[in-house]
Amino acid sequence: MPPTTTVQVSKSGAHEYHEVVIVGDNGGQEMENACVLLHDAIQLRAKYKPISPLAEDEGSNVIMGPELVVGLPEAEVCPAMADFARQLEVPFAMFEGVMCYNGQTKFNVGYAQYKKDVEMVFNALEDRACKAACKARMTILRHKFQMHHILNDHYEGREQFLLGDFYSTMKVDNSVRLATAMDCESLLKFMVDKIKDNGSDVVNIVNGKPVTLIEVLKKSGIHDPESLTVEGLGLQPGPFKRFHRFDIFSKKHSRGDAASVELLHIFLKFSNHIQGRYFAELIKPLLEQNDDPESRVATEYKVPIFGANRGEWEFLAKWVRKFGLLSKNNRYIIQIPRILDIRNSGLYKCADLQEQLDNIFVPVWEASVYPEQYPEITELLENCSAINVISDETTRGQDLPDNRPPAQWPWSDNPPDIYFNYYIWANLTALNDYRARKGMSTLLFRPNCGEVGNLDHLVSGYLLADSINHGIRMVASPVLQYLYYIAQIGMCLSPLSNNGLYVPYAENPFLRFYEAGLMATLSTDDPLHFHHTREPVIEEYGIAAKIYRLTDVDLCEIARSSVLISGFPGQVKAAWLGPEARGAVPSIRLRFRKSTLQTERQILLSKFRKVSRMDPSGTRKPSINPSPSMVSVNSPSSSASPAPQKVTHLQVGVGPITPSSITHVAPPTTVSSPGSGGSAEVSISMEVSEHPGDGDEVEDYVKFQRVEVQGPTEDDPRVVNAVCLLKKATDLREKYHWKAIPPWQKVKRDLNPGAYTVKMEDGVPLVLSKAHPERGSIFQVISVSDFLTDINVLHDIVENVDVQALAYNRLRLLEHKFALHCALNSLNESGFGTARDFYKSYKVDTHVHMAAGMTAKQLLEFLIEKAEHHSDDIVSVDKATGKTVTLGEMLSRYNIDVRKLTVDALNVQADASLFERFDIFNARYNPLGHDELRTLVLKPDNYMGGRYFAELIKKYTFAQFEEDAYTFAENRISVYGKSRKEWAKLAEWFHTHGMASKHNKWLVQLPRAYTGLVRSKAIKSFGELLENFFLPLWEVSMDPNSNPILEHFLSRHMSGFDCVDNESNIDPPFPLNTPPHEWTSEEGPPYNYWMYYLWANLVPLNMFRARCGRTTFSFRPHCGESGSMNHLLPAFLFCDGIAHGINMRHNPSVEFLFYLAQIGVAVSPLSNTYLFLEYMNNPFPSFYRHGLNVSLSTDDPLQFHHTQEPLIEEYSIASKQWKLSAIDMCEVARSSVLQSGYDHSVKEHWLGKWYFLNSSLGNDARKSHVPDIRIAYRFEVYHDEINYFERVTGNKAWFKRAMLTKEEEDQVIALIEKSGDGPSNARTCRGGKKPEQRPMQMGSRASQFQGSWEAELKSPSARGPSHSKPVEAASQ
User: Fold this and answer.
1) Per annotation, catalytic residue among 18, 265, 1140, 1186
2) How far apart are CA 430 and CA 105, in angstroms?
3) Active site residue 930
4) pLDDT of residue 15
């Protein structure tokens, strides 16, 4: 079993926080294929820098990691460089571009080897196996963190309360250009005041003549300094500067004029005529602000050294000393600009690259060797933290040159940055080695990498840098992300800066980097250009917190990283961060980061060792030659995992990185948790639990990597209260919802239909015995007053803040858990037989209207064919004259020339005008804008008896179904309730025209067209509409011989009822004291009034038909497409499924209840995008990832689709836009079959003998094309949610489950086998292996399962959760 990291807490095995454990996570086949190249890349990093770029005080336990580098041979030392160093007679000298010193014993990797190493890293970046493995691992890391975040927010916040908040913790702005460190307002005020008070100051000499400050201002045409503006000076980039260079000091790249550029040179440069006096006066308050005892901000300011001459260092150092610009909370970063415009401007020039390197490093060496002779430079170096290289990354993409020393690079030939960075690193490494030996401070290497351009800068940064600035281009390479994560290389990102120039804020990858565990922090870069407050770093953090929804713990963790990445002295960082270098970050968060990093490193190492053992020689020779100065890590000689008594700890800490930063200590270590009442013992466990969670509903025989959450029982009273309220809501559904008889249950026919009669009373049917009518109705329906009480209770539940918070978090957990499952098991799921064959998966269009079931092109062809060949058909009667009208005469009346007809002229397809205009949408059902044509062609009830409608359906819709053996539909057809003869007419139309099709089941929809019917005098009241709709169904149910054609239609071809109309209409108040027969106004009843009376009529009808041995009907109305959220509440109580449901996205409580009840939701994204919701905002993909029972449907192909296969078109667009895999689509297709009303025998044929079981035993992957792994995942996760809720209540309440438990499935299987209807090997799983016998615990939930279905045929008022125990909400 592969190792996983678990945290064991010394509290009788209890956990003090929730831990996300991936059972069996070993990286999978992807990591096995990629581990060699990844391991080699990590070895390469170890040649240039320690595995972790950070170091920490001895004995700390913040970051630990197993050994990563195995069996490294001795490195080859460059003989020429070693000989040169030994023969030195001077303290230091250059050798082929790299400084050597007298007495040197350690040498850098040579350039030739560096070039090979860069190529090897690129090989890993371009390798398909590495890309696949790293993409999966980065996805796992992100979603694992998000799950941890959701689960432990309460615990982390409780601990952080004792540590302090973001404002009290120290944070470092790691990358700020000194020249742009101030805000615009401060700069503008300083300039105005200075010009007013010192306008006569000589600030420049031009042609030997002095130029005063006021004269420079007047060059721009401004005479009053108060007229200066931020826009006029061009201080901030405009909206059209994106992807272009922006430089306020360049006439070419500034938005201001030449005079503005000159002014800014005077105020923001230290190398000018006034020797930077104004600049020093401007920035000194910034430095003093950080040194304020109340300030919790430190800064690393970038100042430029071009390498133009050797006097730059001395000039800068003297300027800093002269104006007193050194302070304890500020450090300087020496920035080496390689901007082409500056280089080509002629401001400075060297003979060759070697001269530039000499100008940069010789003064530093002189100050290091002779500090007393160069006191200013020595002092500056003690206050410097890093060297930075900045360049035009977009202009350099050259290949690395061959071994060409810097002296052979003339100034006219500009070498690539990846080459230049090597020589900066090589010289800096030698300098740091010398200074460390002398007890002096050292410098980090922190180049700008990956802001724009290609990836070569990031590759260079990976090998050479301690940390980098920017790095946003890394988003294009999951391999680089993974390598930076494993090596924990610091990244200083500046989202506001990136937003101003390159990447919109919302697209910045900072959040995904941070969530995955990269050492990412926030910096301001250029506050003058991109910020608006006088605390730019607080502004940077604040905006990130709002845009990315970061918590205070997140901000404290980012701030802690900024301190660790910085170049401040070790003792300073230790004082800032306090014990264990925690800062204000809870130990829970640090443990999570530590264990996650350990796990990833261990997975990679284990895979590498496995591959090494597979080598025929028994060992694997590394493909690189490390240098003697690399950090070496001992490894055990055997191929087994490292011995538990010796674990390599990669220390995070203070000060420069040295080989001694990696030490061997003996685990376990102890981490104290505030508020835990003692220390908690944390160790690395190499064993994994076989069963996640409670283990109640784990399908052990289905092998895949499971995501397990281990932790304490929830004690938050708000959570307990929310769970109790959810239990109450699910009990309400049990009270109202009538379930169809399951396939395994045989119901006794205990009613003689002829012995009963029915009458309507207050809109509800009373089923009376003819012999004893005084006994009352045999079915008692919950009263409307009780319904209103319950719906108000349900409304209060879904609006409760505790319920909404819990539902929101649980849905997020479900989404992240699904993403983890896919990342971990994608190969396992797709690695079986026919899993990818979506086209051979049976799928049902669960929501489509027959009147719009054809495409516009097909309708046009039909009209043209009829007009050309059947124009003499009598199609109607003129109401005025009483004469018959032929088709040709009707078309002539409307001036329709069929020869000129086009699809566009039909005007039936949707366009932008339909958005939120249901009236226009309804009008599009009228071909050519004529309602008479709609009645003729698209309705069954007309003068021709619906002949054209039937021919149209059979010729196109049904014919298309016949061509695709795997696509089916449930078409809606309308019965309005305007007459009791409608049902007979519909049945007659169906029978006369032979409308039966094995590819179609019919749902009868009741349009909420009450207002129109009343106005047309068709009905007088809502009660009459109900009678017209339901009494014919009762009559034929009690006496099938009264209308055998209708009974045949109901029993063989109809599956359920729908109710449809525009939901966006405002509902009137619910009339409690107005029964349906008293509702006589023209205003239609509210939606919930419709729902209640449809349910109150349908449930008794279903009960009666079931007890008479006849078919029953599902209730699947249109709901949640628009309008009030309250429409979804009766749907939750009453319905088997709904159409649309997209409004659930507004209320997580409702969505979560639909998940718990597994109510089918048929979503129609193409329909929604034209009417109410843009396609990419559709919640279907989130519903699917959350685990809701969703399917895709077309709604109205006539209006929204263009191909002859509209359902395939719907799936195709969804898969492309939302990146659904073939397995995802097969799962959605399977759900559509299960939602549908097709017969049991049909579903058996489509999905397998045991399709009605919820576990993988009910899945026949050969037919569904969905792997057992996916079914088992859905099954286990659902029951995990219910188990969690029951644990929260202390197991005092049992939730009614929408999925059978394993015990219940065993009872079902036993029942079927006993009856002889099923195979004797029903418990045999897909692989042919028999799973362990599930224990039958009598007295448990399962013991009350058998026989409960017959009880549910009793009165709905008496129904409820038969095994539930009452539980009161905490608030009560």
Assistant:
1) 1140
2) 10
3) no
4) 56
